[in-house]
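BUG: 3D viewer hangs when loading the predicted structure for this chain

Environment: internal workstation, default settings.
Expected: structure renders.
Actual: progress bar stalls at 90%.

Input used:
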Amino acid sequence: MNKKIANLALVLGLAAWWGLYRSLAFLSGAAVSMIGMDRASHLGASLEFLLFEVPKVLMLLVLVVYGVGVLRSFFTPEKTRRILSRFPEGVGNVLAALLGIATPFCSCSAVPLFIGFLTAGVPLGVTFSFLISAPMVNEVALALLFGLFGWKVAALYLVTGLTVAMLGGWVIGKLRLENHVEDWVMDVRGSTDVPDVDIAWVDRLGAGLGAVREIVGKVWPWVVAGVGLGAFIHGFAPTGMLASFMGKGAWWTVPLAVLFGVPMYANAAGIIPVVSALLEKGAALGTALAFMMSVTALSAPEAILLRKVLKPRLLATFFGIVAVGILLVGWLFNLLLG
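Structure tokens produced before the viewer hung:
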């Protein structure tokens, strides 16, 4: 396939994507009506929510992951590590946090690259800025928040999430806890660079498809499960109960939401539909986002993986700093948008 044909296929694919995406609301409502179900009933509302949100989230996921897959073909992991290792910690924290946005991974998926940064000699605090940002603030979450709540909420989420990642990594770096990294990690530090190879444009487009197969292929069950839970909440969960648990009038709901979120494990694409349904039932935005951030950035499986790399004191410091940052974000959202 030559470059012109590849570009034409890309344009046609984007046009088809946009046409189908714009038709989802009509198609989901029509499907519920066709089977004779009352769209205003609990079951009808849940089914319409499910039929609308599942393809919507998956289509957004495919589009964003494809774009990032093409972009990532310009930056090999070796090149990225080499660039980050050249900067002082303050600048490196900013760059690493921004890099995390371009990695649509859950917290566990970000751990291997985090280990790669450590073994390549990237400063400890910089690696933690990436580890915090990758699951907490990624392009999938931004796209979904923009589609569900508008640009103001998405922008505030981006700024606050990046702030937590940058400051959290910077604080960890200043604490000088390098001796609390497991010895085997320090033993394998060294150069892992390989020669950079120029890639044809057609192959870069193919890299985008490969990213879709790899990433969407892994996370789509979480998307369906998350939307399914969101659909149940949308149609059946009592508004009063949720409002009392996550209502904006109670300050303690933010830390409680974080405590509930940490034992769970999901990615942003799977948990945002749940957040959307909770908000429709009266939950405060800051409380719901604090819950989402704790699920994506501070999961129990992540702690298990990181324990192989970090000693207990550093692991506890990481979780504590990020938890405090998430609490502050939740309270800030409730204060500004309440």
